[in-house]
Amino acid sequence: PYLLWMAGFILLPVVMILYYAFTTTSGHFTLLNISSIFASIHLKSLLLSLKLAVICTGVCLALSYPLAMILNNMKEKSQGFIVFIFILPMWMNFMLRILAWKLLLSNNGVINTMLASWNLPLLDVLNTPFAVVFCMVYDFLPFMILPIYNAMSRIEPDIIEAAKDLGANNITIFFKIIVPLTLSGVVSGITMVFVPALTSFAISDLLGGGKVLLIGNVIEQAFMQEYNWNLGSGLSLVLMVFVIASMALMSAKGEEG
Questions:
Q1: With DSSP H G I counted as helix, E B as strand and the rest as coil, what are the percentages for the chain, rounded to 5?
Q2: CA distance 52 to 127
Q3: How far apart are CA 229 and CA 15, in angstroms?
Q4: CA 137 from centre of chain
């Protein structure tokens, strides 16, 4: 059954993408769909997607590592409750969470209403890259925290105690023991955040207001608005190469660790 599932929902769509990417609307072979990535608007959107994905991944890592350490040092009962709090928003619909932040960050939203009542400067972040990255971090943060926390929870306390008995201070323990033993979780977290951040289009569509055009938005418009499956498939294939390359790089780094 799993082979049938893979053939129908993984292999067949990829084969269709490959076919449309290398053909014209009349079915003739072409490379124009692939080379269209070098068009100024497409290349600009791809570079912006890479930039925001890197920023989102970096922020998630900077927030997740200390949070995972704090969580790992808590009592077991508290750990389960905090993990539940992190997972709870993931039970809600992805689009509803984006729309909720759109209402909160709007000029007449809850946040600006509170700031106005306190005579504080209002926020004007909606329809900016900041709003897109902010919502990405909010949505993808659990995917970074959980792998790192799982890796930390597998570190035996005896290893830390042995290092202290041998004269290692907290800085040495962190860089020589904790970081190497949690590298697999870091690599998993980076992959799980970077890939969806790079391919995202719904967040930039709703919070970017058409002013933040990512490569995912260009592909979505090619399929859904222009009905140009050939162009959309060509751009998707290029984006797929970036995704596979990043996953291969992270996998290699994880194996080295």
A1: 80, 0, 20
A2: 14
A3: 13
A4: 8
Are 50 and 238 in contact, with CB atoms under 8 Å apart? Answer: no
72-105 pLDDT per residue, tens: 888 877 888 888 888 888 888 888 999 999 999 8
pLDDT score, position 221: 93
Long-range contact pairs involving 92-96 (C-beta distance under 8 Å, separation at least 24): 94/139, 94/202, 95/202, 95/206
> DSSP secondary structure string, 72-115?
HTS-HHHHHHHHHHHHGGGGS-HHHHHHHHHHHHSTTSHHHHHH
Token readout for 73 is 């040092």
The predicted structure's pLDDT at residue 146? 92
| The token pair that represents 26 in the structure block | 């009349």
Residue 23: strand, helix, or coil: strand
Residues of the chain with pLDDT under 70: 253-257
C-alpha to C-alpha distances, 181 to 139, 164, 190, 199, nearest whole angstrom: 26, 17, 16, 30
Supply 169's token pair: 């201070």
| CA gap 121, 127 in Å, rounded | 18
pLDDT for the residue 193: 95
pTM of the model: 0.89
Closest among 212, 208, 216 to 240, alpha carbons compared: 216
Q: Which residues pair with 23 in a beta bridge?
A: 29
Looking at residue 254, what is its pLDDT? 59
Q: Burial, 216: exposed, middle or buried (Cβ in 10 Å; 0-12, 13-18, 19+)? A: buried
